[in-house]
Amino acid sequence: MNDQWRDEDYSGTYPEQHYDAYEGDYYAADDPGYAEAPPEPKIELVDEDGVRAFELSTLGWLVAFVALLPFWGLLSDRGWTWWVWTCLAAFGIGAIGIEVTRRRRARRMRN
């Protein structure tokens, strides 16, 4: 049987590929159109310390908890009260995360 994926058939002649962040395409390293690789684009972090992310996600879990409370009877009849407890637990974990990230930010600001 002739197997088309045998190692002996690989010649190893594929050109090395580099990522061109500006063109969104790949190009060969020996391409004469590129004298050197383009500079890396500067990317600034939106939320460097993570406090804002914890605050927003914790607020989202609190909103979900409050939104599910009026449906307690319906959720209880169907055995879905775990949704309410999941929202409450995630809110509690998020509150702890907010405190941890605030302390980390304060420690980084002191140093």
From TrEMBL:
UniProt superkingdom: Bacteria
Cited InterPro entries: DUF2530
Ranges that cross the membrane: 59-76, 82-101
Keyword terms, alphabetized: Membrane, Transmembrane, Transmembrane helix
Pfam families reported for this sequence: DUF2530
Protein name: Uncharacterized protein DUF2530
Source species: Nocardioides albertanoniae
